[in-house]
């Protein structure tokens, strides 16, 4: 079943995070991920607000988790650490 990769982010270092974004997109695409939302308008109804929200669709939970652990994504993530505060989850869809 398809899955959604959902990230809520507060960027604290735009330059370093820009490098993350540059590398993360191709890593996500390599694992079958496509972006559904990248930033954009949002309304926070509950919980901690993060100004950047990203949703990517993957073919499965396993594909999303494999992407996260891949060398390509981990290289991208090395630029986000210390440059952002993030929450990331993968949720299987009901499709």
Automatic annotation (TrEMBL):
PANTHER family: BLR0684 PROTEIN, PTHR41521
Segments passing through the bilayer: none
Lineage: Bacteria, Pseudomonadati, Pseudomonadota, Alphaproteobacteria, Rhodobacterales
Domain of life: Bacteria
InterPro entries reported for this sequence: Dimeric_a/b-barrel, DUF1330
Coiled coil feature spans: none
Residues annotated as domain DUF1330: 2-93
Short name of any one Pfam family annotated for the protein: DUF1330
Name of the featured protein: DUF1330 domain-containing protein
Annotated organism of origin: Leisingera methylohalidivorans DSM 14336
Entry-linked Gene3D superfamilies: 3.30.70.100
């Amino acid at each position: 079943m398809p899955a959604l990769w959902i990230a809520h982010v507060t960027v604290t270092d735009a330059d370093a995070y820009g490098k993350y974004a540059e590398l993360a997109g191709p890593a996500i695409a390599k694992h079958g991920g496509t972006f559904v939302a990248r930033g954009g308008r949002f309304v926070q109804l509950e919980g901690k607000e993060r100004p950047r929200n990203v949703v990517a669709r993957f073919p499965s939970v396993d594909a999303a988790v494999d992407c996260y652990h891949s060398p390509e994504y981990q290289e991208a993530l090395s630029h986000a650490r210390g440059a952002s505060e993030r929450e990331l989850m993968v949720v299987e869809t009901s499709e």
